[in-house]
């Protein structure tokens, strides 16, 4: 549904829970550089084990094999998988931890063209500062129009956002997303149209 954004540019307002306001800028799909001033609070290639506290080492060959399966089922995007392809990565499973609920934190729903920068590594998050990517459960709650949520590592704005959660009006829809950790331990959450509340739970993380 990323095709819903047309034209040479689209507008995004970046939301940072720390400054009490938003900033609007122009995003140029032809450039991979994010020109937006931030308002602040990345993928793994293999499905994580469900054993809590389990630590495993994954090598590149099985990662690439499973990547094809995950993309085919729509569980994760090609862009997300490409970001986390390394020779080794250690996965740590967590008891799910709620990191964001815009219904409760006073931020209000994510509006059209808004980007919410969420801290997922370090700070109050159970994932450490050196986490390279995180496994999230992302939920869109009662959106006002048909649209999608796209996630990426903060500071790595894609030329064209790729949908991670698709929804239609008044739905509550969740999806598992594996995304790299960006600048200051944050990921960006983008809503192109309408308004929707967003909830994010941390399920696990990867470290070098």
SSE blueprint and pairings:
Layout: E1 10-15, E2 22-27, E3 55-59, H1 60-73, H2 78-83, E4 88-101, E5 114-119, E6 133-141, E7 147-153, E8 165-167, E9 172-180, E10 186-191, E11 197-207
Parallel strand pairs: 1-5
Antiparallel strand pairs: 1-2, 3-4, 4-11, 5-10, 6-9, 6-11, 7-8, 7-10
Architecture overview:
This protein is mainly beta and 208 residues long. The protein is built from two helices and eleven strands. It has helices at residues 60-73, 78-83; strands spanning 10-15, 22-27, 55-59, 88-101, 114-119, 133-141, 147-153, 165-167, 172-180, 186-191, 197-207. The protein has a six-stranded mixed beta sheet, with no helix packed on it. A five-stranded antiparallel beta sheet has the order 3-4-11-6-9. The longest helix has 14 residues, at 60-73. The chain is globular and about 40 Å long. 42% of the residues are buried.
């Amino acid at each position: 549904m990323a095709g819903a954004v047309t034209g040479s540019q689209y507008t995004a307002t970046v939301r940072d829970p720390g400054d009490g306001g938003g900033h609007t800028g122009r995003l140029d799909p032809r450039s991979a550089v994010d020109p937006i001033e931030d308002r602040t609070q990345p993928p793994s290639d293999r499905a994580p084990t469900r054993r809590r506290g389990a630590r495993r080492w994954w090598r590149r060959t099985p990662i690439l094999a499973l990547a094809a399966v995950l993309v085919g089922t729509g569980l994760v995007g090609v862009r997300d998988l490409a970001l986390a392809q390394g020779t080794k990565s250690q996965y740590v499973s967590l008891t799910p931890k709620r990191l964001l609920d815009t219904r409760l934190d006073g931020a209000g729903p994510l509006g059209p063209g808004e980007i919410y920068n969420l801290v997922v590594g370090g700070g109050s998050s159970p994932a450490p500062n050196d986490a390279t990517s995180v496994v999230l459960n992302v939920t869109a709650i009662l959106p006002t129009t048909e649209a999608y949520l796209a996630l990426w590592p903060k500071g790595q704005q894609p030329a064209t956002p790729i949908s991670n959660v698709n929804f239609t009006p008044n739905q509550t829809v969740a999806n598992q997303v594996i995304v790299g950790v960006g600048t200051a331990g944050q990921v960006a959450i983008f809503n192109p149209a309408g308004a929707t509340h967003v909830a994010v739970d941390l399920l696990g993380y990867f470290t070098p």
